[in-house]
Amino acid sequence: MTKARELAELGASYDSGALSNRNILKNGGQTVDQRNSGSAITLTSSHQYATDRFICRLGTSSSSTAQRVADAPDGLYNSVKITIGTGATPSAATATGYFAYKTEGLDTSHLNFGSSNAETITLSFYVKSSLTGSFGVTVANDALNRSFPSSYTINSANTWERKSITVTGDTSGTWATTNAAAFYLLWDLGCGSDVKGTANTWAGADYRGGATGTTNVCATSSATWYITGVQMEIGTEATPFEVRSYGDELARCQRYYYDLQQAGTTTGNEVGITGCNYNGNNFFGQVTFPVTMRATPTLSSGGDWASRDGNNNVLSSAFSYQRSSPRMVLVSATATSVDAGHGLWVEPSSGTNPNTAYMNFSAEL
Amino acid sequence: MNITKAQYTTDFDGNNSAIKATINGKELIVPIAPDNTDYTAIQKWAEEDGNEIQAAD
Question: CB distance B11–A295 less than 8 Å?
Answer without folding.
Answer: no
